[in-house]
Amino acid sequence: MSLEGADRPALVVVGTGHHAPTPDALEVLDDVAIVVDHDGTITGVHPRTSDDARTAIERAAEVVRLAPGQRVLPGLVDLHVHAPQWPQLGTGLDLPLERWLFEYTFPLEARYADVAFAESVYSHLVPTLVSHGTTTSVYYSSVHERATELLAEQCLLAGQRAFVGRVAMDHPEGTPDWYRDATATDGVDASARSIEAVRRLAASEGSTLVQPIVTPRFIPACTDDLLRGLGELAVATGVRVQTHCSESDWEHGYVLDRCGVSDTEALAGFGLVRPHAVLAHGDHLGDDDLDTIASIGAGVAHCPLSNAYFANAVFPVRRALARGVHVGLGTDIAGGAHPGLLSQCAMAVTASRMLDDGVDAREDAASRGVAGSRIDTVTAFHLATAGGGDALGLPVGRFEVGQQFDAIVVDVDAARDGLRRWDGIDDEPRLFEKIVRLASAADIVTVWVAGRRVR
Prior knowledge:
single chain, alpha/beta, TIM Barrel, 2 domains, 15 helices
């Protein structure tokens, strides 16, 4: 067949890779050729010296050979980003959640009525996340339709895979009168228009990377009529859902008082717990809640750094996974004061150790913590990659045939901080752990989304 034929690979990446296809398994792909077609789909992972690899390399439109100190890993999936909060990253974290929203967040988000301001923020946010290796983001926008469309435009420009949702909120007690939907009907109608706008935009670019997502902020900010209407909108449009669920003592208790059931039960009653819905935080979920989420096929965005400030608890990753819940990681920008998911992996491990061991030395060691809660770096990285992809129902996060080639290259030998290979000390699993714990955006030298180089 001609080299221009359908079997000609678009890209072959040659080198050593790491991925975590399951929560408890690191796979080292030593000296392989990853073959990618023109749709960005992985069609083969072969030993470099095999006949299949040699044939693919000879025919490929592009061959990338990694240097000895470079490693390829799956791209990172951030399940929870508040895009309008980017300018407040790292501020106000001394306040409880309900005050933080009214004193910091809502005044900032209201500014996105100014289109120029929105463009200035989003044109900085999205490329920055890509530089940190975030190949997929699930974004909350503000209530503003045009600003939401601008965010989707920036994702398309940057080549990032993204779900972009206009935030809906109308509760007269849970939101300020100068920043909310005027009525439940207005909120549903604006969300419907936003869904169509994002779909039109992506179609005009011939892209399937950017999709809309139904986004009720959370129950305290929404009336029952709005929540019910958004659930119906999700069904009618087939669009995924994202919202907050049982994040803090305050939110969890508020929903119990108002609805008489848990946050999960209430959201499910409104039709908002759906397959591949993203429920952010979930630190106060009970076993019945986890079982409901698992049975429906929704997922949890675990935001370990943000949870340390606002959640009043540690999310039980091990318990959720054991009950069949899809779990991924989120930065929760700006509640989480760092834009990269690798640092969230490290924080997820730390938080799990604190939950396992307990934190109050006045308690007996045998009863101080929740035994069996700890996770390791492999599990955390799985959450940040394949776990997030599974939560969204996307074929990303693994270097396997049929998966999309969303990937990053970390250059260990060029790192300028504590990340370094030590001969005779660091085997591949140790090097993987160092990369996850220590690599920064400066060490990520290449990013691909759907086989296309975007950094």
